[in-house]
Amino acid sequence: MAVSRLFEILYYLVDHKQTTAKELAEYFEVSVRTIYRDLDRLLVAGIPINTVQGNNGGISIDENFVVEKAVFNPQEQKQILTAIQTIEHLQGTNQNALVTKLTAMFDQEQRDWIEVDFSTWHKANNLNHKFYLLKEAVFNNRIVEFNYVNSYGENSKRKVLPNKLFFKSNTWYLQGYCLIKTDYRIFKLTRINDLVLTSDVFNEKIKFPPVITSYDNHFMMKKVKLKFNKNLGNVVFDEFNKDEILLDQAGNYIVETDVFDNYWLISFILSFGSQIEIIEPIDLKEKLLDEIEKIKKIYK
């Protein structure tokens, strides 16, 4: 739900006195169905909205209704402004006018406290555009199509009804109902290519989405014990929890943790070269040595 849109609808009704669901849908660039859902939420919140059928009917707000800052205590006022500013940065939309209005009404100092940049340090990418298209799909029940590269490097065409975007371990993911696999799937946004927001609207009933517990849940977990060089403290604390980290007498970092047993683990260890050592398990050492032999053959 777009919190900012609810406030904008409220101000629109106060300013225009009477309107229609179609006019609101066109103004906010959403479906009529979405507008009615927003109006229901405003009614539940106690906003006196009236709807009248007929040629001269429409949607209006009680003429005696006034938006007063006294409705919200100072802490709630800050939370509202914070929520809208967060939405602005995450959705890539401009809510400055709304933030300014509410800031003045609440008599609060406007603080630009958050900034979200989807590009990486070493290159620019199109995550902002993907985020915008997927947000539109989620709020309007639109189907998206894209090419996806899975964990094995395999490319496939997907047709998906997006359910939600979520941020986990420094990466954005999409949970959606795949119409090809006829089940929910999780997709890493950086592996989504050629994303298209179709005009197809999906209104059929599907099962409730599962709780997101893991991205790579088709891989087994493996307990590992690794030793990182003492110069890699920044990496260790970025990747692992504090209670998984110990220091040895030489100041090196000993990490004991559970990780997914897939190729990521080998590539992660290889990325540190001689600055990391596998203490346990033995089979992981053997896998690493096999991979090193393959690499050596390439450069012979």
From TrEMBL:
Residues 2-61 form the HTH deoR-type domain. The keyword Ribosomal protein does not apply. It comes from the Bacteria. Transmembrane segments: none annotated. PANTHER family: PROTEIN PAFC (PTHR34580:SF1), PTHR34580. It comes from Thomasclavelia cocleata. The lineage of its organism: Bacteria, Bacillati, Bacillota, Erysipelotrichia, Erysipelotrichales. This is HTH deoR-type domain-containing protein. Keywords: Transcription, Transcription regulation. Gene3D superfamilies: Winged helix-like DNA-binding domain superfamily/Winged helix DNA-binding domain (1.10.10.10). GO terms for molecular function: DNA-binding transcription factor activity.
